[in-house]
Amino acid sequence: MARQIRDVMTDHPSTLTSDATLETAAREMRDRDIGSVIVLDGNGGSICGIVTDRDIVVRGIAVGKDPAQAKLSEICSREPATLSPDQSIEDAVRLMREKAVRRLPVQERGRPIGVVSLGDLALARDEKSVLGQISASPANR
């Protein structure tokens, strides 16, 4: 039987509401040593986007936005493709390929419960591959 997303995802994803600042998201990423934050609607319930460290730089700072004032709603990728924890790893590979993304939020009953990354999938499929080895290495600081 093919492994499921729940077997490879990172659980307890970092989330912020769409009115959080870029600075807040950057600090969250630094403090948790992660590269993305799931963006929730203003009520803090459902997923409305995802923001990456690259988004903060390219869509925020590089165009002159003030990280202490600009909101995630201004730069996040809206309505990201999502997975359920019961879907297969192959479903995630297909979806990442179709949408040209490196991270997918995992949700259950409309709530975020995890994130699966390209690195997670590389490790799950072939930990000896170059991407698998890179993904398994500790982050450089």
Q: What attributes does this structure have?
A:
141 residues; CBS-domain; alpha+beta; three-stranded antiparallel beta sheet; globular; single chain
Q: Which CATH architecture?
A: Roll
Gross morphology is: globular
Order of strands, main sheet, comes to 2-3-4-5
Structural class based on helices, strands and sheet pairing: alpha+beta
**Beta-strand proportion:** 15-25%
Oligomer category:
single chain
Question: Which CATH C-level class is it?
Answer: Alpha Beta
Provide the low-confidence segments as ranges: 129-137
CATH superfamily: CBS-domain
Helix content, binned percent:
25-40%
Mean pLDDT: 88
Task: Write down the secondary-structure element order.
Answer: EEHEEHEHEEHH
Number of strands: 7
Helical stretch count?
5
Determine the CATH topology: CBS-domain
Global Rg: 15 Å
How many strands, what sense, and barrel or not for the largest sheet?
4 strands, mixed
Measured between the Cα atoms of the first and last residue, the distance is: 38 Å
Number of domains: 1
